[in-house]
Amino acid sequence: MSGTIVFSPLLPWALVAIFAGIALAGVVLAVWRGLAGWAFRAVAALVVIAALTGPSWRQEDRTPLTDIVLLVEDRTASQRLADREDQTRVAAETLAARIAARPNTEVRRVTLPDGPGDEGTRLMSALADALAEEPRARVAGMILLSDGRLHDLDQAPDLPAPLHLLLTGQPEDWDRRLIVRNAPAFAILGEEVTLSLRIEDTGAAPEAPEVPLDISVDGGEPQRFLVSTGVDLELPLVLPHGGRNVIRFSTPEAEGELTARNNAAIVQMNGVRDRLRVLLVSGEPHAGGRTWRNLLKSDSSVDLVHFTILRPPSKQDGVPVSELSLIAFPTRELFMDKVDDFDLIIFDRYKRRGILPSIYLQNVADYVTRGGAVLVAAGPDFASADSLSRSPLASVLPAQPTSARVIEEHFLPQVSDLGRRHPVTSGLEAEWDGDWGRWMRQIDVDATDTSGEVVMTGVDDRPLLILDRVGEGRVALLASDHAWLWSRGYEGGGPQLELLRRLAHWMMKEPELEEEALVAEAEGQSMRITRRTLGDSVGALTVTRPDGTEEELALTETAPGFWTTDYQAPEIGLYRLAEGDLESVIGIGPAAPKEFEETIADGSALAPLVEGTRGGVRALSDGVPSIREVRPGRPAAGRGWIGLTPREAYETRDVRQVPLLPAWLVLLVASALILGGWLREGRR
């Protein structure tokens, strides 16, 4: 029980003050006039003024409440290095027992596990959540058992009591980590790109002026170099292929270091072509002559050279040679010296007229086998005696014309069964809103002597579009020169632009148009794996995790030629995928999670916050500190001890309030005093 005087004025304090002033003036006047009863009047006025303030005696029945100490145990991944987990467990049990042994004190233990994804150590968020669940007036102190490496310092709450950080780890701890400082997301094929990385030793690291650095691309055999530690390294790199390139940098685990989880880094870069060089050879003017030119010129990444034959040498029309052209076209330079500079050569209705000697065409055929690409858009010329099929280029063509037959009739181009699985023509019907228009001419080719894949058919299922691989290169034959009808909207038109775009990009070996491919796309730790094939079935997919364990997944056909599955990666790192002869790699998150970026225990990040509450940062390697009681505002940490501030909180169970000046008493006392003053003054 405890008591105190409280006031509940009957009038506003301002009016009470005014009445007090009037009473004081009256007393002063009585004294000035020499009235003998002025003292009785003053006391009477004082009693009335006191009664207006409403004084009362309040007694409370209070029950003391315990002080609360928050003990936050960091159980994240970095706390499982070396002996930190046992160190944390022993310290937590010891401190909890010491706190529980203190009178009127209880402990709230909070465990901080690994967060979702790669959020790192959310130590301040855990502390803020714990404080939100407890009355702040009862919190006597907060103790953090951690390595001090946190990733949410900006979420620190207002702290009502001393905060202490007890650091795990040992003084001899050291670690080596690999840091990639600069890694662009894209790089131009054939051009050198520079990556910046650094190998850094922290803690009590031994002397190591040079350490091995392994570099591997797409999971291949790594190359090893010796590099210096503690300096920024500039590494020149040329991407080997287009599309995604997965580059892994790593350094072997050294004896005694805390972990090898931060000894590697994964960089995923997309290889893109700077300028696609295309040579377009137009044999003669025709209604669709602008089709290829408009398509290629509309792409800003294409550098087009257009070689057009407007007047064959055999034509005799009397026009002076000086008026035919301003300069001679550099055919020898293009077809002999510079042919390998082109990514694609297109022959649009071209036939042999003596303009390009056979040696030039033979050089083009050799260019294909070396890795080049040739597309023949055939017209009636392909079925003539001067056809390219009768030139040295025939050795790489996927089909030959039959008996010089040109079919002049309406027909509707169709995607073949194989074409529904081929990336050039799969889903082509969905690219056009409505029915396709018909074409009116097709060159008949020998279907029994066709190499490659027939992905589109025409009249009576005859081959219309044939794709083939020759040596290291690719060849396509379009047995019609009427694709331009779609672009003109004839009978509704068709997906001419999309078809020719895909065709050109397949021939230039763009990765997204490969027939046999195994690709994966990741979002967070969820992975969508797609196996693209021309076959009717695929085998099981083998996934190799970063720790080397393997598991098999079944693929489901979701569209013709497309087999997919979803996979939830259990951890971040480099995953290897394999199905049949195809292999692929993909990096999930950084090779080193946030938890392992910095592993040496350090309290410098939390030091300002701890010092602001008069707490302390202590190393558990020096032993578990004792606990003392300190007054608010006093230093709460010293050599071998940490302090708690008693809060003396209580709960009020009952309140009793007794007026000190009840009305009857005020009336009786005031009347008696006034009467006494009157009698005193009447005697004189």
Could you characterize what this model shows?
The protein is built from eleven helices and 37 strands. It is of the alpha/beta class and 684 residues long. Strands 16-15-17-18-24-23-22-20 form an eight-stranded mixed β-sheet. The chain has a five-stranded parallel β-sheet with strand order 4-3-5-6-33, sandwiched between helices. Helix 1 runs antiparallel to helix 2. The protein starts with a strand and ends with a helix.
Provide keyphrases for this structure.
single chain; 684 residues; alpha/beta; 34% strand
Q: What secondary-structure arrangement, pairings included, does this model have?
A:
Elements: E1 2-7, H1 13-33, H2 38-52, E2 55-64, E3 67-74, H3 84-101, E4 105-112, H4 123-132, E5 139-146, E6 163-167, E7 174-182, E8 186-188, E9 193-203, E10 210-217, E11 223-228, E12 232-237, E13 243-250, E14 264-272, E15 276-282, H5 289-297, E16 302-308, H6 331-337, E17 344-348, H7 358-369, E18 373-377, E19 401-407, E20 414-415, E21 442-445, E22 453-457, E23 463-470, E24 473-478, H8 484-487, H9 496-507, E25 517-523, E26 526-532, E27 541-544, E28 550-553, E29 556-559, E30 562-568, E31 573-579, E32 582-588, H10 607-611, E33 617-619, E34 626-629, E35 637-638, E36 641-644, E37 650-659, H11 663-682
Parallel strand pairs: 3-4, 3-5, 5-6, 6-33, 8-14, 15-16, 15-17, 17-18, 18-24, 34-36
Antiparallel strand pairs: 1-2, 2-37, 7-9, 9-12, 10-11, 10-13, 13-14, 19-21, 20-22, 22-23, 23-24, 25-26, 26-30, 27-28, 27-31, 29-30, 31-32, 35-36
